[in-house]
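so im writing up the methods section and need the D-alanine--D-alanine ligase record in one place, dumping it here so i stop losing it
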Amino acid sequence: MERVIVLAGGMSYEREVSLSSGRRVADALKQAGLQVEIREADAALLPLLMEDPPDLVFPVLHGAEGEDGAVREVLGLLGVPYVGARPDACRLAWDKPTAKAVFRQAGLTTPESVTLPKTVFHDLGAGAVMKAVLDRLGLPLFVKPTRGGSALGASVVRDAAELPAAMIGCFSYGDVALIERFIAGTEVAVSVLEIEGEPTALPAVEIVPLGESYDYTARYIAGQTEFITPARLSPEITERVRETALAAHHALGLRHLSRSDLIVDPDGVPQLLEVNVAPGMTETSLLPLALHASGLTISQILTSL
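--- predicted struct ---
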């Protein structure tokens, strides 16, 4: 293998994050002596892939076009090998309520939630629907779009008066909301990589945002969040979160790499929130932090993948 195309950018809300991740992946692969090009997923891509196919494509697209399986489906049609999950597995992970159903079927614990489209609030009356949600789930709540990442449109609701604004913020980024019971506890991320063909859980990264929540600013602005690797968990709970991430990876049918986001509740139970099929690779992203804690270099691992 000599020539690799890294796909980055796109037109999602996470474009800038994707470009930053793409540059870091490209630099890591170049360090291994590979010829690397960064390309957009635009109208020029398919002619390039058909006329001068690379040995491999490494998708680092965040948001819909990078994580819903569509671009990977097209790569499969062209017979171009790529790193990461196949389209069907991407579709399962991309839709958070569907992924939560898969988690439960696999015996994993995930916060109780309801999924409601914007039209329900319009047709049935926003006040009545929100009251029903509060009566069922109580407070506090966590509201987020059913599809998307980087905590865009997501917010914590600690008072009933905050719920209308949270719904408006959520619907700014998607037409369907996932409203979860908020779980207090230790927030961790566990990345899974296939090392020598075997899915392996990296050390858990503990996330301690300086603000109220791990929002977009806390994720990508240096100094806004403290990351502790390995996470301050007992050996027993460390093993639980590791097993949960591996089980989620298998349950969704993923391959090569993934990142599971979890909250360890006060009882020591890992509550699985979601799984990302295109983990960020920026300077403040969680997978590279876990690699560093493992004594592995990003160039070594990405080249292996």
